[in-house]
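ugh finaly. both done.
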Amino acid sequence: MTNVEPNDRRSDAPKPDSSTIAAVQAQLELILAHKLFSETTRMKRFLKYIVDETLAGRSRRLKGYSIGLEVFDRPDSFDPQLDTIVRVQAGQLRRRLDRYYAGNGKEDAVRIMVPKGHYIPLFEIRGSAGDTAGLTVSGESRTGDIVRMRAAALQKPVGPQIVVTDLESIGGSADDIAFARGLTAEIMNALTHFRYLSVVYSGDSRAVDTARPHNPEPEFGFVLKGSVRRVDNVVRVTARLIDVQTGAHVFSRRYDRDYTLDSLLELHEDISSYIAAAVGAPYGVVNRVTRARAASKAMTLANYEAILNFYAFVRCGNPDNYEAIFNQLSAVTRRHPEYSAGWAALSLLDSFQASQNPQVTDRAAVFARALNHAKKAVEIDSHDSLAFLALFSVQFHLGDIEGYEIAAASALKLNPNDDHLLGFYGVTLACLGETEAALDFMTKALEHNLNPPDWYKFPLFIQMLRAGAYADLVSTVSERLDRDFVWGQALIKSALGRLEDTDALNQLLKDSPELTAQSTPVLTQMLPHWNIESAVRDNLIGGWVKADQLI
């Protein structure tokens, strides 16, 4: 018995081709025979169930509820929000797969992965010798891909440079030193996913300290250093970021985690993810410090400044700034046509404008331009997570859900630490009715950003609307959400209409005069671009109509 959740409007995904099915099934048998899985019946059943359902083209049905019934024998009354067995077991499954592929399976031709926030597995089939995965097959187009890939790889990052030094092992034991070196490597790897940064490994931090007095104009902008101390079964990691120009410690954070041999890979991934996101993400420390400096001095890094202005726009969403930033980014792409981040930012800017500005008249044209720019960004650099973020964003708004899911998986694989990517993906999942996963990604985005944009919390707002918690919705949104986000104000208007609060509605219209009765038809026309499940959509529109009647 497989339960199909009632609000899932999408059809099942197509089956993979026969050769892929055969390869994945053979790989599944290898994994299930390994001691990591052979000794646990429930974990074997979990992995086999989600792989078999995906190969059969039924991946859309892999929700917490159906897995609870089919794998963990929960009753029909099972509530995955209250009973977290599926989520907990999924975490253990991911860790076992990581351990398998770090050991016996490291040379396997097929990799089975279960991305965080999902129960749908991904299958990565390695290329032949020379590894041409991701490149097209025909000679001429493949040559073009290789040229573009090499050009992108040789392109000098346009943003600031971070020098990463070895984490110091306070204890000094062989195990602690190995842990510190491994964590340093993971931090380096995580930071390099932010492709506007130049990340350099230095080794001994004392070499950097010695070089500073003799180099008043250092090539690097920041130094990341830290330490690892382990006492019994607790490991403490301290990370510090130093602004080389001023010598100021602009970031300092301490992470305490339980330490076991079985959890080493998870510890490395967890801690490096938080450090990289806090330091290098679009709203992280490096960009905040650099932006503040650019405001006080003339900055010549036009490309980097354009990207920062773009992120400032999507954070605050003031439509009055759209044209200036669009022109700035357009100038960047004219000067540097192989700059993938510039094309991706242009695409995201248009997607934002077409999906959130009621005054746009020809949305189809703006979305078409956004799609072209996103495809160009991916073509230039197929390893740029921002390019795939742009692609899955416009595909989502255009209703290409299959394409959106493929591009989103690529973006998350390339950069699982970008809180902007995590936050927007959570919003899209909430619109599609995938509440559990949406809240998971919202939580992760909020954990990675100490000062997040308020729209990161849209999954929570949509959940409140779905549950009819109108008073909670009004108090939460009105206190937090920036007035420039029309959908935030639209949520409040709908909730106030349901509450029949005329005084609050009049105050809302005074603060946001664009939300007149005439705005309801425009907002209703915009809603299809958000693919919101029917029950929530009807609830939202009904609240607007009620509000218009009251005022």
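ok and the 2nd:
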Amino acid sequence: MLLSDYAKSAPHSPGVYKFLSAEGAVLYVGKAKDLRSRLSSYFSGAATDRARQMLSQAKSIEVIVTDNEAEALILENSLIKEHFPKYNIQLKDNEKYTYILVTDEAFPRMLLVRRSRGGRIKMRGSVYGPFVSGSAYVLVSSTLRKLFKIRTCKVGQGKPCLQYHLGFCMGPCAGLVTPEEYGKQVEKLKEVLSGGKKLEQLLEELQSEMLSASKMRQFERAIELRNAIKSLSSLLEKQKMESRSEADEDYVSFAESGGNVLVQIFRQVGGVIKDRKRFSIPSAVSGSPLSEFLARFYEAERIPRKIYVEQPFEDMALVESFLSGKRGGPVSIAVPEKGDKKKLLELLRKNIMLEISKDSNPALIELQNALSLPRLPKTIECFDVSNLQSSNIVGAMSQFVNGFPKKSSYRRFKIRSIEQQNDFAAIWEIVFRRYSRLKAEGSSLPDLVVVDGGPGQLNAAISAISELGLSIPCVSLAKKEEEIYLPGKRVPIKLPKSSEALHVLQFARDEAHRFGVSYHRLLRRKKTSLKL
């Protein structure tokens, strides 16, 4: 495959890319907000002499998708430190990222620190970050010190320092506060640095204070608070590429495709994701493919203390015992239920689906696997019924092609067969009308039909399709719990909220609903104007 072909097949997603030599050596590591656009720029004729020299030695390109550009920047830095690529001379500096450290002291301080070349932070305490948005971390640090009155001077100097007199410190330097009282403020600071609801509450308070300052014409204070809000919002996002844990951990995800199992592993060393490993193995004859794979993989690899997988697998306890014996210490294989560890596994799965899908939307590959569809659902049509107090009952259909709306193919229906509210009958009618027309025209049918609702709506749609003698995969999506009902199955499927496959179904459902409501409003306006 030509290098330019690798670029054309890359996704329009943020991530990291690696140019590899014929021997597999990493020549260059880069990050991009849009991988396809960035890689294509290398072949546009505007490449520098150094880039052309690198391209002359490169034989392939590998990409790793991330969820945002900040994660890509952190992963890029980790990979450069790991591989020291020949053409990355300007990024080998290890002093690029800054962290906030809350020290383990009787009266803790909040310090700005950097990791050592070995990826460690020398002082003991709780670490937050990294911060990757230029010098804004200084503003965050100074803002938080003032808000929580965290000390900057030495304890025991006998008299209050200037920060105390300015109202920015509680005075531990002069013994004006007990360790317990000071500790409460430190705990509040840690909660804010950890993100979540406490951070949201703080941002709301700062927003309110900023508006008050503006109304009182205290514009300098309002600008200071605005900058603080902006910095806290952008810099305190958790980044999955680096962990506050110093542990060595592995993250393993896999998916079956075409008789093979694709496995990808993120290896975390010293709290930093160092690299991704990829494997393609034959499907297991029996049991889970992970059982045999993990035992063989760790024959020649460092065995970490913890291994995270997406779901429990057969013989998991046996593999734990085997690896513990080889390591000479306990090894835990766990399934994270939430947090950054779960997000890392989801990111791995996204990359696997991208590899399987090639030029197709990875979300559709996930959807095909989740619903056991016979083919990739490149064309999805979704139906919804809209009515208000049994008047002007209408139906609507959205069409999605390769995971995106094709609005020119949306359709709307005025219900003819019923006058009273009956969602089942209405769904039957609009589905029957849609596909009886396509059948008569000899037009192509969709790969998947989705109806808004539960088992009742699903059965109505299947009945209409069956009466036409057609065979189209059909499911329903229930709004309240976002459960997916399949024909002949009592228990619905519930995909994770972060699932891209679920997002496609939700988007299609919401578009059908929006289109139906707009048609319903149009008919009501016409009816009202006629009365006038």
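summary for the 2nd one i guess: The chain has a mean pLDDT of 83.
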